What does this fold into?
Amino acid sequence: MQVEQSTLEFKSDARQDLGRRKNNKSLLDGHSKAVQQVSDLIERVANTSANVLILGESGTGKEVVARSIHTISNRAAKYFVPVNCAAIPQELLESELFGHVKGAFTGAITDRKGRFELAEGGTLFLDEIGDMDLNMQAKLLRVLQEKVYERVGSGKSIRANVRVIAATHRNLDDMVAKGEFREDLYYRLHVYPIELPPLRRRSEDLPSLVYAITDKIRQETGTDVKVTPDAMSALARYTWPGNVRELSNLLERLSILYPDKEVDAAKLPSKYSTFSTPKLPSSALVSESVATEEFAEIESTDQDESCSTIGLPVLTRDGVDLKAHIASVEQFYIAQALELANGVVAQAAKLLGLRRTTLVEKLKKHQFQRTSTS
It folds into this structure.
């Protein structure tokens, strides 16, 4: 059964979703080269009219990236309209995208605007584009080429001034080779590809992500989640098949199970705690810690043990992103100092052996939200 949704209802949904969009943007924070490259790609393409194709595993934040592009683009004053192509039956997708007129089919009791019309002047995000069937792919291709479409049941053409961003976790190259995805549509969408790294390849960003997600939970529920260094180390060594979405779900679950309490490795579900390392002193407890990367098996056992004990990555022939890890360590101690100083910058600076002005600069650099500047 098709669900009717008026423009008024859509606007209400969009307003309610505004706060979530702003909070989710923080999930792009990080110091890894991979995240910085994604951020650079977002900034470069935002104010162009190019179609964007976002590629990445499930849970890597494809919609977050799409929203970020829209937010800093010259279309930001208009709507960002998401459509999950996998969640809508293919026989209803045409009406969902292009709308319909009254009487176009059984159940079409009123005229209805489609997502293209709702996104006029703004951005249409087609998530899981790889699940769209070939028939709908042809119709989408026409809109991208000719910038016009018709509502189902109507012969009147409507001009489309919409920026299209598509995303998928599937390998479209393979689908094109197998005849499952139109090659011409692929190249129309593939004007500007952005590939998102899985969380297991950017473990140095884990502290920033944990900090951002727990801060979001605190703002929404008033519950503080405090992750100890040994728990952070365990999380950093986990492979994260569900990526950032899995991390977010885990932290939300922990906030319910252990509200305003310390969460060490022993409190983590077994599949995460299996990766724990030796426990650090309780004095090192903060809400954001230094992450480990996936530890490589190397011949130097002493080096491996000493590094894992303090939550640092082992240096292998593949190298490490030193700048990113130094930035994470800096954030670690700034967060701890601010917590001990109850947000008073001058006191936090004293704890860190810094001048107040120096700490203020670092707070701006790392985009800390401060409640006090005294």
User: Anything to note?
Assistant: The first strand starts at residue 52 and ends at 55. The domain at 325-368 is CATH 1.10.10.60 (Arc Repressor Mutant, subunit A). Residues 173 and 186 are 8 Å apart (CA to CA).
